[in-house]
């Protein structure tokens, strides 16, 4: 492997010679192409190999390099492999001339007049940043490409320490550059699957040996015990392997296979009495299964086509699914994945299939130039010789009476159901790839490789041409409410237009060309399918809702079920996949805020959102915004009666907001509490709602009456006070500080005019960021930057140290019933523990450090927020000693159709006939 591949223009060779010499003097190997070799295939392959085998790409910016076609090819190849690009500025250029993917990257200045040695030192520092991760990226890429080049030979898959190292890199690389490519993910994931299969064979061998030895009585009792011990050990190792495999598949975006793998492990653990009492193994398997159950979207996979699947369509009643393939066939399926019938009749690849809105007919379009019409049950009605060239699309009018076909010949043709040609729409100067009727059936839109969309009357009059895409327009779709037009292009964008053709906005998130865009039946969402192997789900206002991953190749077609709850996708990987769009186990609210707080009756969640407080319903709808702070809000808290919200801010104040519980709108800002001389990090109401405590950067705790009167300032900490908490009886305040201590303050029980220091709890090795009382008031939990949580008696005696997080622990909170506690960490996870210190399960899903937690009053929902301002609502209704059983039931229910129709998995969720 080389430190860097240098991409440059030959006209800048003198500078690059100097740069190469500097690398040589620093004992760094780089890849440089010196000679202007003829542009042969061998030369091109040599360049590609140089890029693949280099850890970094150093791009020398100059007017010649940014204009060079070959340099552009090198950048595109680098981006394809997710290589880290380090631009260095040799000569000034117009910023707009730089490759779009490099414009935002920091440039190292090597221009004439700058200090070359200093600039080179900066370049070496950039190369050495995350060096081990970059080297692992290159090592795995080279191995994966060799594996793919040699027909995916299993002997070239990873194993042992190489596999462990690869999996570890895959997990951590998702959060930092260079990011893994799809090939990385597939290679590591399939390596783990192969190792797992080998391990299972070993288990079977041990099992057979044990059975034979017992049956024949050929071994002594000590040999039997040894065999039994080996068998148990093998079972444990198998479960750990399955859990690791599930995790690796999940990280590789293969969430459905991850679910199946973790289900199998959980079922094995459930039935293995000799290992089922191992709490660590329980936690490991539960974490793997919970991760899959909570975040899986795919629910089924329809296998049967022998070539790429180009199109998929639901029948209007949702009882059938039709798929069109390059294997020249259409297949009819039941939604559970059972094959109804294979329709044969085309002589070339089938591009498109569509049900008529009345559900009585199916139309298919083929490269053979014909449109075939079928009954809904798959009987062929007749064939229309529609075009003399490839047909890309076919669709019915809303009344099912007209069929439109779009062709390579640049035309759209309209047909009656009987096959009579009604009209020909000509106007594009390139192939027409997609055609769509408006909701009222009075207009058509056609999308073309000429980068335009044309609007037509049903009579064939051209109304308007929509321009703006920078690539072939591959799909056009009218919304069902007749208000919007969506277009998708190979330029990686979707554009939304009014029905009159006015461009509204552009949606950008796909990494490659988009094949199809379609609206949900209620017109509120859109789905897009892409060459980048993903499906994306969008709100009609352009907000990206979700990205569905799992296909191993480009996704051509996508269609919503009539109820809008399921999405079907057709892919180059020869499969149709079904995706459930709403998972009741978890809800993600991006860009919401931090410090969530549930109202006592659970109908509201208040959250700090920048300088505002926003109110949300538990189902994730934003209801209201409270504005008034002059700086960031750090903490919010509901009063026990739910009528007041307290907020703590960087503006050094606490504000009290009166809430109209009927309308859920704040009627007034009640009071601003001034007195702190630094950021106010935390605020909390007393259990009876009469008092508030606030903790600040100024190292104090202030005790306030609810009317805003300051009762007392509690001094004693030698660092910032990050968190305060009242005991359930309201007699004690606990404060957590960066000084590594927790202080307990006793309120004056008679006059209630203040508090006195009761005790200082010491034991953490770093700042304490959170403190929480158990609901019965007998245990105090503290969370620290030392990566631990500690449980104490109220007298300050240490009961337990909970170790498991891999970074700072920001928050700890008890579930209202006192049976469990939750912890949040900078490592991006939430962990659930029993009060005796046993780790139950880890909640994974955040893409940044988790900084706040809050249980709903009934304990069934946990809200967590992270440093990206994302809030996740976790359904923990079944958090008890039967958690694994509940997760197995949920997983079996989610994948039930697939498990019933897939012969290899039919027994996974059945035990004596039940799941």
TrEMBL record:
<protein>
    <recommendedName>
        <fullName>TIR domain-containing protein</fullName>
    </recommendedName>
</protein>
<feature type="repeat" description="WD">
    <location>
        <begin position="302"/>
        <end position="334"/>
    </location>
</feature>
<keyword id="KW-0853">WD repeat</keyword>
<dbReference type="InterPro" id="IPR020472">
    <property type="entry name" value="WD40_PAC1"/>
</dbReference>
<feature type="repeat" description="WD">
    <location>
        <begin position="384"/>
        <end position="416"/>
    </location>
</feature>
<feature type="repeat" description="WD">
    <location>
        <begin position="626"/>
        <end position="667"/>
    </location>
</feature>
<feature type="repeat" description="WD">
    <location>
        <begin position="802"/>
        <end position="843"/>
    </location>
</feature>
<feature type="domain" description="TIR">
    <location>
        <begin position="1"/>
        <end position="128"/>
    </location>
</feature>
<keyword id="KW-0472">Membrane</keyword>
<feature type="repeat" description="WD">
    <location>
        <begin position="343"/>
        <end position="374"/>
    </location>
</feature>
<dbReference type="InterPro" id="IPR001680">
    <property type="entry name" value="WD40_rpt"/>
</dbReference>
<dbReference type="Pfam" id="PF13676">
    <property type="entry name" value="TIR_2"/>
</dbReference>
<dbReference type="InterPro" id="IPR035897">
    <property type="entry name" value="Toll_tir_struct_dom_sf"/>
</dbReference>
<feature type="repeat" description="WD">
    <location>
        <begin position="843"/>
        <end position="878"/>
    </location>
</feature>
<dbReference type="InterPro" id="IPR011047">
    <property type="entry name" value="Quinoprotein_ADH-like_sf"/>
</dbReference>
<feature type="repeat" description="WD">
    <location>
        <begin position="714"/>
        <end position="748"/>
    </location>
</feature>
<dbReference type="GO" id="GO:0007165">
    <property type="term" value="P:signal transduction"/>
</dbReference>
<dbReference type="InterPro" id="IPR036322">
    <property type="entry name" value="WD40_repeat_dom_sf"/>
</dbReference>
<keyword id="KW-0812">Transmembrane</keyword>
<feature type="repeat" description="WD">
    <location>
        <begin position="761"/>
        <end position="792"/>
    </location>
</feature>
<feature type="repeat" description="WD">
    <location>
        <begin position="507"/>
        <end position="539"/>
    </location>
</feature>
<keyword id="KW-1133">Transmembrane helix</keyword>
<keyword id="KW-0677">Repeat</keyword>
<feature type="repeat" description="WD">
    <location>
        <begin position="673"/>
        <end position="705"/>
    </location>
</feature>
<feature type="repeat" description="WD">
    <location>
        <begin position="425"/>
        <end position="466"/>
    </location>
</feature>
<feature type="repeat" description="WD">
    <location>
        <begin position="548"/>
        <end position="589"/>
    </location>
</feature>
<dbReference type="Pfam" id="PF00400">
    <property type="entry name" value="WD40"/>
</dbReference>
<dbReference type="InterPro" id="IPR015943">
    <property type="entry name" value="WD40/YVTN_repeat-like_dom_sf"/>
</dbReference>
<feature type="transmembrane region" description="Helical">
    <location>
        <begin position="202"/>
        <end position="224"/>
    </location>
</feature>
<feature type="repeat" description="WD">
    <location>
        <begin position="466"/>
        <end position="507"/>
    </location>
</feature>
<dbReference type="InterPro" id="IPR019775">
    <property type="entry name" value="WD40_repeat_CS"/>
</dbReference>
<dbReference type="InterPro" id="IPR000157">
    <property type="entry name" value="TIR_dom"/>
</dbReference>
């Amino acid at each position: 492997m080389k430190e860097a591949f240098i991409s440059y223009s030959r006209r800048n060779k003198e500078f690059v010679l100097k740069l190469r010499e500097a690398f040589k003097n620093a004992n760094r190997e780089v890849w440089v192409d010196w000679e202007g070799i003829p542009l042969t295939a061998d030369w091109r392959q040599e360049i590609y190999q140089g890029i693949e085998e280099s850890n970094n790409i150093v791009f020398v910016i100059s007017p010649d390099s940014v204009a060079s076609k070959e340099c552009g090819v090198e950048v595109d190849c680098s981006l394809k492999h997710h290589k880290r690009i380090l631009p260095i500025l040799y000569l000034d250029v117009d910023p707009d001339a730089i490759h779009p993917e490099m414009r935002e990257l920091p440039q190292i200045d090597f221009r004439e007049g700058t200090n070359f040695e200093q600039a080179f030192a900066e370049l070496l520092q950039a190369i050495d940043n995350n060096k081990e991760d970059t080297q692992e990226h290159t090592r795995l890429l080279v191995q994966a490409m060799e594996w793919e080049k040699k027909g995916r030979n299993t002997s070239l898959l990873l194993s042992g320490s190489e596999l462990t190292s690869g999996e570890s890199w895959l997990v951590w690389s998702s959060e930092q550059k260079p990011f893994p490519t799809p090939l990385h993910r597939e290679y590591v994931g399939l390596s783990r699957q192969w190792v797992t299969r080998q391990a299972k064979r070993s288990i079977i061998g041990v099992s057979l040996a044990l059975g034979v030895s017992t049956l024949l009585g050929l071994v002594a009792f000590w040999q039997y015990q040894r065999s039994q011990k080996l068998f148990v050990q093998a079972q444990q190792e198998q479960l750990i392997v399955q859990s690791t495999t599930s995790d690796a598949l999940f990280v590789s975006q293969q969430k459905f296979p991850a679910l199946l793998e973790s289900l199998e492990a959980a079922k094995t653990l459930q039935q293995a009495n000799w290992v089922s009492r191992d709490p660590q193994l329980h936690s490991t398997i539960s974490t793997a299964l919970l991760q899959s159950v909570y975040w899986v979207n795919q629910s089924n996979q329809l296998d049967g086509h022998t070539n790429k699947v180009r199109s998929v369509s639901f029948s209007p009643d949702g009882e059938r699914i039709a798929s069109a393939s390059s294997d020249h066939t259409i297949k009819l399926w039941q939604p559970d994945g059972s094959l109804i019938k294979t329709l044969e009749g085309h002589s070339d690849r089938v591009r498109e299939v569509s049900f008529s809105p009345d559900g009585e007919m199916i139309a298919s379009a083929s490269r053979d130039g014909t449109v075939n019409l079928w009954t809904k049950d798959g009987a062929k009605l007749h064939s229309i010789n529609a075009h003399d060239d490839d047909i890309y699309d076919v669709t019915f009018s809303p009344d099912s009476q007209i069929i439109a076909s779009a062709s390579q010949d640049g035309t759209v043709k309209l047909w009656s159901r009987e096959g009579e040609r009604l009209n020909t729409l000509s106007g594009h100067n390139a192939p027409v790839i997609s055609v769509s009727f408006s909701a009222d059936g009075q207009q058509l839109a056609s999308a073309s490789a000429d980068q335009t969309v044309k609007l037509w009357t049903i009579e064939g009059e051209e109304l308007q041409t929509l321009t703006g895409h920078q690539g072939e327009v591959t799909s056009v779709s009218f919304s069902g409410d007749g208000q919007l037009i969506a277009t998708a292009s190979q330029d990686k964008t979707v554009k939304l237009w009014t029905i009159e053709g006015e461009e509204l906005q552009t949606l950008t998130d796909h990494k490659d060309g988009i094949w199809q865009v379609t609206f949900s039946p209620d017109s509120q969402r859109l789905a897009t399918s892409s060459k980048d192997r993903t499906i994306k789900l969008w709100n009609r206002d352009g907000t990206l809702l979700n990205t569905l991953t799992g296909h191993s190749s480009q996704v051509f077609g996508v269609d919503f079920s009539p109820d809008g709850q399921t999405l079907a996708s057709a892919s180059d990987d020869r499969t149709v996949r079904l995706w459930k769009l709403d998972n009741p186990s978890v809800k993600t609210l991006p860009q919401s805020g931090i410090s969530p707080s549930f109202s006592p009756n659970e109908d509201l969640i208040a959250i700090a959102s920048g300088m505002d407080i926003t109110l949300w319903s538990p189902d994730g709808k934003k209801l209201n915004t409270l504005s008034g702070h002059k700086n960031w809000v750090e903490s919010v808290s509901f009063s026990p009666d739910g009528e007041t919200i307290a907020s703590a801010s960087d503006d050094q104040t606490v504000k009290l907001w009166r809430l109209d519980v009927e309308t859920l709108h704040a009627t007034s800002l009640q009071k601003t509490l001034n007195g702190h001389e630094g950021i106010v990090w935390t605020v909390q109401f007393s259990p009876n709602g009469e008092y508030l405590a606030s903790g600040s950067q100024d190292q104090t705790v202030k005790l306030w009456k609810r009317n805003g009167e300051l009762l007392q300032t509690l001094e004693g900490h030698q660092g910032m006070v990050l968190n305060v908490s009242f005991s359930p009886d309201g007699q004690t305040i606990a404060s957590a500080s960066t000084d590594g201590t927790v202080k307990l303050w006793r309120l004056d029980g008679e006059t209630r005019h203040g508090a006195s220091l009761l005790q200082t709890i010491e034991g953490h090795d770093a700042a304490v960021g959170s403190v929480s009382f158990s609901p019965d008031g007998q245990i105090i939990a503290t969370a620290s930057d030392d990566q631990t949580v500690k449980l104490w008696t109220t007298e300050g005696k240490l009961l337990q140290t909970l170790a498991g997080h891999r970074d700072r622990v920001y928050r700890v909170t008890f579930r209202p019933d006192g049976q469990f506690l939750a912890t949040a960490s900078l490592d991006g996870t939430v962990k659930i523990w029993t009060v005796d210190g046993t780790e139950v399960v880890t909640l994974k899903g955040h893409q940044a450090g988790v900084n706040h937690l809050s249980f709903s009053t009934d304990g069934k929902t946990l809200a967590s927020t992270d440093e990206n301002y994302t809030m996740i609502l976790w359904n923990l209704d079944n958090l008890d000693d039967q958690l694994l059983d509940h997760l197995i039931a949920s997983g079996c229910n989610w994948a039930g159709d697939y498990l019933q129709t897939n012969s290899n998995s039919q027994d996974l969720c059945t035990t004596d006939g039940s799941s």
